[in-house]
UniProtKB/TrEMBL annotation, chains A, B:
Enzyme nomenclature, EC number: 3.1.-.-
Summary of subunit composition and partner proteins: Homodimer, forms a heterotetramer with a Cas1 homodimer.
Matches recorded under SUPFAM superfamilies: TTP0101/SSO1404-like
UniProt gene name: cas2
Recorded GO MF terms: endonuclease activity
Protein's name in the database: CRISPR-associated endoribonuclease Cas2
Source organism phylogeny: Bacteria, Bacillati, Actinomycetota, Coriobacteriia, Coriobacteriales
NCBIfam families: cas2
Top-rank EC class of the record's enzyme: hydrolase
Keywords: Antiviral defense, Endonuclease, Hydrolase, Magnesium, Metal-binding, Nuclease
Domain of life assignment: Bacteria
Length: 96, 96
């Protein structure tokens, strides 16, 4: 399954900046950063559950926001890119 | 159709800041901001084409990035939210 993750982490203090780094680092293990706060990940259902649990342990639920959008298996026709984008195919190679 | 729009606009100069304001303003006409640079929009195919064209005219394609994710009609089970989020139902009322 193809999952989009977007996040807003409150970085007004040192602890927020630390959470942001941890969120970025974890998401990088599962997918590819396509914008500053947007990751595209190709995961199986078990990995997705694990990722959500791990992210939930990092963020401050009173301050930070995480959104998950599951685009399923037939995701390619669902995505369009405009402007400066890395053309990323999580099932294939990275095209610049 | 339910469309997610995410954007990174290069705001290093005054022109970038102006583009960002214009992108935000336009997206607000079609949907609801759910994170700093993420909008959820409920549009028909004609509106979606118009929105993409209008956004394409605002951004600097060499500097800015826009991503569109079409979650279709059966979008509700595809979305999960963690942390500080407005619970937004574009087909219903806004729940805080």
């Amino acid at each position: 399954m193809y999952v989009l993750i977007t996040y807003d982490v409150a970085t007004g203090d040192a602890d927020g900046a630390r959470r942001l780094r941890r969120v970025s680092k974890l998401c990088t293990q599962y997918g590819q950063r396509v914008q500053r706060s947007v990751f595209e990940c190709l995961v199986d259902p078990a990995q997705f559950e694990l990722l959500k649990r791990e992210l939930g342990e990092i963020i401050d639920e009173r301050k930070d926001s995480l959104l998950f959008y599951n685009l399923g298996k037939n995701w390619k026709p669902r995505v369009e890119r405009l402007g400066l984008n890395r053309v990323y195919d999580p099932e294939g190679i990275l095209l610049i």
